[in-house]
Write the structure tokens for this entry.
Amino acid sequence: MLTKTAKVKLQDGTRVRHKVIGYEGLIEGTTGVKACFTDVGELLKYRDSKQTFQYRVFIKGESMRRIAPDDDLEILELAEEVICPQCRLSFRTKPDVANKPGGRCTCGGWICPFCVYCQDRSGQSPCPNQRKRLIRKLAPRKMAEQSVETGG
Ligand SMILES: [Zn+2]
Ligand SMILES: [Zn+2]
């Protein structure tokens, strides 16, 4: 299934860890600026590299993006296209986002941005968070009123 090419294979949002330095972050596109290229955590000395691009890695709290080649990055969690079992629309998952559309629900399922269902892996009763999201989606005004009443 997987073919080894020089194409971009890590999608934006994929959570990675640098194998040598150990930082963890999220893929945020690529760069073709060879002056920024790194190899095992250090700036590449010889720029006659055959690599045409390296990945930009966004790390929380850092204003600069780290640059690293594919080989130095370990994939912790892949951002990928999944198909919602409820509405059958496909969407891109966001590993680093919790309890928001595209991200992970606390039950472990991905939250569909279209119908807000989280994937029910077990086949048991629907996730309670899913119900809350549905209510919020269908009746935003009512929810707002409620939060005023409770002082939230
Ligand atoms: Zn859906
Ligand atoms: Zn859930």
